[in-house]
């Protein structure tokens, strides 16, 4: 077995252990309301951070390129209440078009 597969196996075991910790620690009790609010907002905040870093992050600095314009096109398409398929196609087309120039 290569080092890559050993690493994947260890990360899998670690992930399962981390995910099992919550239910085992709480024992069927509900989270406090204040903590529930934090947990509910965590996923959208992490997704937003990922989008910002992947769109504007360039070699330890901020930069604007074609993907930022594609993201803007997607935001405008969402504001126009277009279907999600259309939003993705518009964003991809704008980004690809600018990269082709």
Question: Short description, anyone?
Answer:
The protein is mainly α. It has helices spanning 3-26, 33-56, 66-79, 84-100, and strands at residues 57-58, 61-62.
Number of helices: 4
- C-alpha end-to-end distance: 46 Å
Note the run of SSEs as H and E. Answer: HHEEHH
What low-confidence regions span 5 or more consecutive residues with pLDDT below 50? none
How many DSSP E strands?
Answer: 2
Order of strands, main sheet, comes to 1-2
Tell me which oligomeric state these chains represent. single chain
Instruction: Give Rg in angstroms.
Output: 20 Å
Shape: extended
Briefly note the structural class of the backbone: mainly alpha
Strand content: under 5%
* Mean pLDDT metric: 90
Largest sheet geometry: 2 strands, antiparallel
């Amino acid at each position: 077995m290569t080092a890559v597969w050993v690493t994947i196996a260890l990360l899998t075991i670690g992930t399962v252990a981390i995910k099992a910790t919550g239910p085992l620690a709480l024992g069927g009790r509900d989270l406090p309301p204040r903590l529930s609010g934090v947990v509910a907002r965590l996923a959208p905040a992490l997704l937003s951070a990922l989008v910002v870093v992947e769109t504007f992050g360039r070699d330890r600095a901020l930069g604007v390129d074609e993907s930022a314009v594609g993201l803007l096109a997607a935001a405008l398409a969402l504001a126009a209440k277009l279907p999600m398929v259309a939003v993705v196609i518009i964003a991809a087309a704008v980004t690809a078009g600018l990269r082709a120039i």
